[in-house]
């Protein structure tokens, strides 16, 4: 029995691909991060960033918090901030799905929508201006070591445990890069031969949750030495794979998870043997107002 909603963050299940992986010598597992209470992998980072900052005294319940987000981190921060009695303002592009905006507000956060034509970079610029001019404290997931350390402490150990230390490849979309940085650090400490595969969109593609950042916006927590290989996927590939995950594997997720699964399956087709773990970072219900499943 769990006595605290925060105790339900992490320890998400691994499920084996039954249909999509057709290489009999490779096992492909999906790690279902939508089972976190806030519905995504970002619960891990949000909890660690807020809890660690409070323990250090970086801010207190009277501090005005702000963060730019494309969605999942904002939902997680809204949930965690509400539990701790903190006020938080979340900034995101106006083309975010209404489910995301409504969920953040349901948890008690204030949501500011910035012009969609400047994307998440514009939301980040807005938040930084509020810090500079209006006394806000920014969580700053893009440069906050507590982001990747959440995955070093939880995601990596869970994957190592649940594959009995036999994982050969880890596949993850790259957004803030916290998931791949922390998980890579842990897995490489256990076995330096584990291959870490990052997923980015092709140049012409827009995939929520996966970014190819301009140099000036590259997350400061990112270390390219911790990624062995980067695979690019198109917007259409990611969309179609999200649809196939739902229809054929019973895994209801967003487009970034479809992108990671596309890369994982491409990888699986090239291997003579191996055990691959691919992150399914959220649930598909927060995309129902978009055209993802039309």
UniProtKB/TrEMBL annotation:
Its cofactor is pyridoxal 5'-phosphate. GO terms for molecular function: cysteine synthase activity. It catalyses: O-acetyl-L-serine + hydrogen sulfide = L-cysteine + acetate. Gene3D superfamilies: 3.40.50.1100. Signal peptide: none annotated. Pfam families: PALP. Its EC number is 2.5.1.47. It is an enzyme of class 2 (transferase). InterPro entries: Cys_synth (IPR005856), Cys_Synth/Cystath_Beta-Synth (IPR050214), CysM (IPR005858), P-phosphate_BS (IPR001216), TrpB-like_PALP (IPR001926), TrpB-like_PALP_sf (IPR036052). Belongs to the cysteine synthase/cystathionine beta-synthase family. This is Cysteine synthase. It comes from Euzebyella saccharophila.
């Amino acid at each position: 029995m769990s006595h605290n909603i925060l105790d339900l963050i992490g320890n998400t299940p691994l499920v084996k691909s039954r249909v999509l992986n057709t290489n009999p010598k490779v096992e492909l597992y999906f790690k279902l991060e939508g089972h976190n209470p806030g519905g995504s992998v970002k619960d891990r980072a949000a909890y660690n960033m807020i809890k660690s900052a409070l323990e250090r005294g970086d801010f207190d319940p009277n501090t005005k918090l702000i963060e730019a987000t494309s969605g999942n981190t904002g939902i997680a921060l809204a949930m965690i901030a509400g539990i701790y009695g903190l006020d938080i303002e979340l900034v995101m592009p106006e083309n975010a799905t209404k489910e995301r905006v409504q969920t953040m507000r349901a948890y008690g956060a204030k949501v500011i929508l910035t012009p969609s034509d400047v994307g998440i970079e514009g939301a980040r610029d807005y938040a930084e201006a509020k810090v500079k001019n209006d006394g806000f404290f920014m969580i700053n997931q893009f440069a906050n070591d507590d982001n990747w350390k959440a995955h070093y402490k939880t995601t990596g150990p869970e994957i190592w445990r649940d594959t009995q230390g036999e994982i050969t490849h880890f596949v993850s979309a790259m957004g803030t890069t916290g998931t791949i940085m922390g998980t890579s650090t842990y897995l490489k400490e256990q076995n330096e031969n584990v291959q870490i595969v990052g997923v980015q969109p092709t140049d012409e593609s827009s995939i929520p949750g996966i970014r190819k950042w301009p140099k000036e916006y590259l997350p400061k927590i990112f270390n390219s030495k911790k990624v062995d290989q980067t695979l690019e996927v198109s917007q259409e590939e990611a969309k179609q794979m999200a649809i196939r995950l739902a229809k054929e594997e019973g895994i209801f997720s967003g487009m970034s998870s479809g992108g990671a699964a596309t890369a994982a399956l491409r990888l699986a087709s090239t291997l003579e043997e191996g055990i691959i773990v691919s992150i399914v970072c959220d649930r598909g219900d927060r995309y129902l107002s978009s055209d993802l499943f039309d």
